[in-house]
Amino acid sequence: MLWRKLLVPLTSLALALVLSVPAGVNAASASAAPATGAASAADFGAPGPYATTVEVGAVTTLYYPRDIAQSGRRHPVIVWGNGTFAFPVVYRDLLLHWASHGFVVAAANTPQSNLGISMRAGIDLLTRRNADPGSVFHDRVDLEHIGASGHSQGGAAAIVVGADPRVDTILPIQPGPLANINAVHGPALLLAGQRDSIVFPALVRAFYNAADHIPAIYGELRGADHFTVVGGAGPFAAPTTAWFRLHLMGDQEARTEFFGPSCGICTDTRTWSDVRRNARATQIPAATL
């Protein structure tokens, strides 16, 4: 793995997620969405170079580069879990942002994702599609590099799925408490919101404190509440993209965002209200030898 080389099921949460879906968008009618303009090498919050498209399935919604069949490379995978009573369309902007950077995102079509079953099903689906000569995904999916992410209950699910040997890294966003990080075997970036009154930052820090067996980083986004990520990628776009580009694509320009004595998120106090790195994370150098 690259790193070795280097429910809360609340009624108020459900209502807010439903009301936050952008007008005119629904999962059943999601269609191709172009990502225009290539990001500069270190501008991880800008759209990537790939135009994107969406395929809505019964169990999994796929967000991926539109011309993947003609791509000259294999694309890493991110599996996604939704918050309580939410569906992938709620997080459409973030998932399309990742797809524009070259990832295949397999989002679970379930509003109760905590067990991670549907997220694992996304990996299984892409494994079959990758092996199918008649699929646009044939031999274009990098199944050796898979990350797991999600929001709220889906963040907890990302921790659960992090125990799967196929998953290389996790990035839970404001994860609910129903998970055990002790079985996670890859590096973790745990994100909290400074003003989150549903999943308090202390709950996310508890996961970070327990993750002393893996490289783990805790990042608290200044001013963010529990719904900042809903309906738009917002301040979550850049750090999440950089994390996955580093761990799933080997992008060394992204490394300095998280590692070394002057890491980007460590010094950016306008964006981050609190950043912590455990001993295993601080041992990772800012550059490869």
Automatic annotation (TrEMBL):
SUPFAM superfamilies: alpha/beta-Hydrolases (SSF53474). Residues 60-258 form the PET hydrolase/cutinase-like domain. Its EC number is 3.1.1.101. GO terms for molecular function: hydrolase activity. It comes from the Bacteria. Keywords: Hydrolase, Periplasm, Signal. This is poly(ethylene terephthalate) hydrolase.
